[in-house]
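Duplicate of #3305? Posting structure anyway:
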């Protein structure tokens, strides 16, 4: 079997699937990428038993029948990435070896049989819906940063996908903050469903999405989620467990509204973060009529104080926050002005925005300083 491919097309496919392949594997076959040839199409597959990513690449020339084999993923990706742009790549398979030629370069790689490569079962779709690349990309950008990482509460190390008759809602929380983004649409014909997608799956999915109006299909099953894009199929096993009731966390009576310029607040908090405690990242905010003062102090007794103008009339409020959590939200929000909805000095802060059909809510719990 001999294939000739465009280097750029081949590289794009390899980069798409290589992200899910772990460098250190308990099974040697999982360090390989699966190549399946059918006519003038090459399907590349990468897997870690929990996530599977498949990309299709056009073949310029093919000599042989339908064929499948596996090659070492990182070596193949590094070789193709190092080749000059615009060059053709030839893959010649004979026995248990693959000879890769490109210009004057020649590489010989060992193969492993495709029969040993694991596959996820994709036959039991229960709910399927469509949305654009841009919409899903925007929703992930508004929520991904709030996911937990290596939390003993395993269900927090991922993102909730909540399908209801009125909307698809994404929810992420680490127990100290919560972010949710909802796409309003008519899903009345669909079965309501909640699934938890693991953190690694969310991070890899975000890399595949473009700023495009092209449609993405989300297919939900009992134990996996499949995302179908133009030339890529991304499948991820789900986290088993019960996600906490996020609606109970979102405050309902935060009537104290503090409005200010988003960029001004971002810059002020970034400066305060320089001298905040390295471990807890706490800052104290003093809110008075049309004035916000941000205080930071660390264990070395370094201090910072900075005032900024706000739109607020009311009683004085002092409240502490993790400055990194606030900066994550401000970075995600794209409005020119930002509104902090508060209740008192001991209650959570709510920041809500709306962009077209997508509405977001960010909840940040206060800190005692």
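Output from current build:
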């Amino acid at each position: 079997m001999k294939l000739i491919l465009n280097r750029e097309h081949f590289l794009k496919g390899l980069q798409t699937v290589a992200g899910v392949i772990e460098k250190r594997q308990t099974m040697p076959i999982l360090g390989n990428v699966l190549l399946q040839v059918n006519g003038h199409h090459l399907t590349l597959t990468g897997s870690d038993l929990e996530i599977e990513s498949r990309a299709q690449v056009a073949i310029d020339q093919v000599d042989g029948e339908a064929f499948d084999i596996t090659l070492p993923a990182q070596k193949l990706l590094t070789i193709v990435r190092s080749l000059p742009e615009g060059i053709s790549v030839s893959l010649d398979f004979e026995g248990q070896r693959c000879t890769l030629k490109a210009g004057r370069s020649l590489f010989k790689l060992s193969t492993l049989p495709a029969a040993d490569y694991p596959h996820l079962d994709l036959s039991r779709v229960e709910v399927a819906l469509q949305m654009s690349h841009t919409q899903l990309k925007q929703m992930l950008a508004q929520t991904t940063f709030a996911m937990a990482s290596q939390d003993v509460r395993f269900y927090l190390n991922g993102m909730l996908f909540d399908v209801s008759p009125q909307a698809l809602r994404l929810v992420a929380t680490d127990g100290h903050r919560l972010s949710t983004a909802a796409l309003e649409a008519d899903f009345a014909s669909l079965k309501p469903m909640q699934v938890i997608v693991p953190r690694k799956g969310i991070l890899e999915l975000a890399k595949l999405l473009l700023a495009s109006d092209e449609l993405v299909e989300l297919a939900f099953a009992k134990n996996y989620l499949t995302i179908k894009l133009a030339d890529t199929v991304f499948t991820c096993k789900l986290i088993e467990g019960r996600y906490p009731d996020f609606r109970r966390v979102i405050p309902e009576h935060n009537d104290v509204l503090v409005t200010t310029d988003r960029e001004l607040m971002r810059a002020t908090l970034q400066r305060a973060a320089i001298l905040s405690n390295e471990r807890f990242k706490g800052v104290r905010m003093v809110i008075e009529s049309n004035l916000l003062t941000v205080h930071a102090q660390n264990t070395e007794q370094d201090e910072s104080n900075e005032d900024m103008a706000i739109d607020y009339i009311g009683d004085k409020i002092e409240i502490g926050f993790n400055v990194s959590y606030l900066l994550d939200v401000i970075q995600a929000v794209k409005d020119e002005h930002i509104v902090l909805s508060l209740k008192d000095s001991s209650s959570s802060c709510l920041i809500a925005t709306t962009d077209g059909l997508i509405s977001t809510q960010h909840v940040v719990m206060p800190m005692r300083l």
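Confirmed duplicate; merging threads. Residues 349 and 358 are 20 Å apart (CA to CA). The mean pLDDT is 95.
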